[in-house]
From TrEMBL, chains A, B:
This is Ornithine cyclodeaminase. One of its GO terms (cellular component) is cytoplasm. Belongs to the ornithine cyclodeaminase/mu-crystallin family. One of its GO terms (biological process) is carboxylic acid metabolic process. One of its GO terms (molecular function) is oxidoreductase activity. The keyword NAD applies. PANTHER family: KETIMINE REDUCTASE MU-CRYSTALLIN. InterPro entries: NAD(P)-bd_dom_sf (IPR036291), ODC_Mu_crystall (IPR003462), ODC_N (IPR023401).
Length: 312, 312
């Protein structure tokens, strides 16, 4: 059995390889998966989530992830979300690999959005705006650059400017043309691809400002109470999701449905339908496309399977 | 995070250490645990079982185990049961260790019975009979010798004699006085402790033959259709179980209840009650004690916690 720590996970899954692995995986069936959420038995806020999944004819994966909101206040601080992903041979049950959970989550989440951008964004997109400067932000910048090589520049906006500066510096070290903007509205109006990776509970992206042809990627609002883009973004754009089974959990679409701005019928396709060619993606250079990334255990399985391919 | 392969699991958990760790763990609460059983999505016989548990104020453990009946016919053959145990810090969710599942299961199962024998068998027990010669048999011999140091001799009986010979030879290499018997009835009548670790579906132990004072350990009959000891063994003996929550699954007690030989009220105590002194164990040198070991996810958690203590 192989063990991949965080650095080994990132090294083993270059973006072009992982994006293509996810694309191919979406040609197959959605794996069967379960979820067990356990709360701290002493009554604390912490939760531990276990997600076992089994791909038909493929491997078995178990994602185990702790969500401990108070970890940031520990001395030294620890990430709130930590865990492991374990992969087993679907023909024997034998353990194949164990991988750092936070790195796997970062990798699969960014590659999921990057696959969406590869399928939906304009082929001549040049300007990428990343909204948010948390741990995932640099991964989202790099994954989009891999998915759409025409991109020339990355702008970073974040409520706390110093963190945006840190992400931009980190990207520049890798030779990427990255800069910080203090004007999210202006940057929204200039970008060809906007990727939102925040914990915002109010819309940061005004749909009225989006240029025709822009691709809007929404990642952060994974709870019904969170929101990254306003109703206008959803009514102006053609809406896509990563998978229909999971699309009602996040706030962007569910709040827009609740307000009456859209109905669930507005969702044109998910990644399975797009990859298989069952439904159309972008229909013209002036169309605004919106991709809501809700994630899911199947992406852990697809990503762990890709990791197992690197074992040779 | 530390990784324990099978050899490292066995080396890190010497029997006296593990038996004492299990004893202390039974002073605390039964951990909250869940179980997810997934069947091969292509319709095969194989199953994959995921058991997450969380001890109040303690660690989180996830046991992952594949049950693949056809592994024995593979070339080369593989064990039918394989898997992993992962342990996480209950205060942060951070991964602490991953350990070979088969070795952890062997270790916890034998130590569970050994704790039963330590609490229930006569202190002057000298003769141990092991019934069955599968992978667990040598572990059960060694664990009982550690739990009851007065034991002088080990007899092994198995339907296939050659496998009993192999287990006896393995024990003799460790300096243990071990021999094979072809006469299970005669050996039953001579033994002070009888430990049954079989997959038998008919009773191998005749209760009428048990000597007063014998301790009978029943491990194998984990399904309602399996059976190791007859009704007479259960009516002559004082019955104990490892935990009451799990006691109705195995065939020995459930078939004896179904036949009317005993009622569930015949179960005098479980390990939690015995360790805490809430209920009595053996009440005299002539009493026959019967311990039904049904296992459970809490023992995986206790054993993984013991393993984490070795990390220092």
């Amino acid at each position: 059995m192989h063990v991949f720590d965080a650095a080994a996970v990132h090294a083993a899954l270059p973006w072009p390889f992982l994006i293509e692995a996810l694309r191919k995986a979406h040609l197959g069936e959605m794996p069967a998966s379960d979820v067990v959420v356990q709360s701290d038995p002493t009554g604390g806020e912490a939760q531990f989530v276990t997600l076992p999944g089994w791909a038909p004819g493929g491997p078995i994966v178990v994602k185990m992830v702790g969500v401990f909101p108070h970890n940031a206040s520990l001395k030294p601080p620890q990430p709130a979300v930590q865990g492991l992903v374990a992969l087993f041979d679907g023909k024997t049950g034998g353990p194949l690999l164990v991988a750092d959970g936070a790195a796997m989550t970062a990798r699969k989440t960014a590659a999921d959005s990057a696959l969406g951008a590869a399928l939906l964004s304009r082929e001549d997109a040049e300007d990428l705006l990343i909204v948010g400067a948390g741990a995932l932000a640099p991964h989202f910048a790099e994954a989009h650059l891999a998915a759409r090589p025409s991109l020339r520049r990355v702008m970073i906006w974040n409520r706390t400017v110093a963190r945006a500066e840190a992400v931009a510096a980190q990207l520049r070290e890798k030779g990427i043309d990255a800069a910080v903007t203090g004007d999210v509205d202006g940057a929204t109006a200039r970008a060809d691809i906007v990727s939102c990776v925040t914990m915002s509970d109010t819309a940061l992206i005004k749909g009225a400002l989006l240029r025709p042809g822009t691709h809007l990627d929404l990642v952060g609002a994974y709870l019904p109470t969170l929101r990254e883009a306003d109703d206008a973004a959803l009514t102006r754009g053609a809406i896509f999701v990563d998978n229909r089974n999971n699309m009602q959990g996040g706030g962007d679409l569910s709040q827009a449905v609740a307000s009456g701005a859209i109905t669930w019928d507005a969702v044109k396709a998910d990644l399975f339908e797009l990859v298989r060619g069952e439904r159309k993606g972008r229909t013209g250079a002036d169309q605004i496309t919106v991709f809501k990334n809700n994630g899911g255990a199947h992406l852990d399985l697809f990503t762990a399977s890709a990791l197992s391919q690197t074992l040779g």
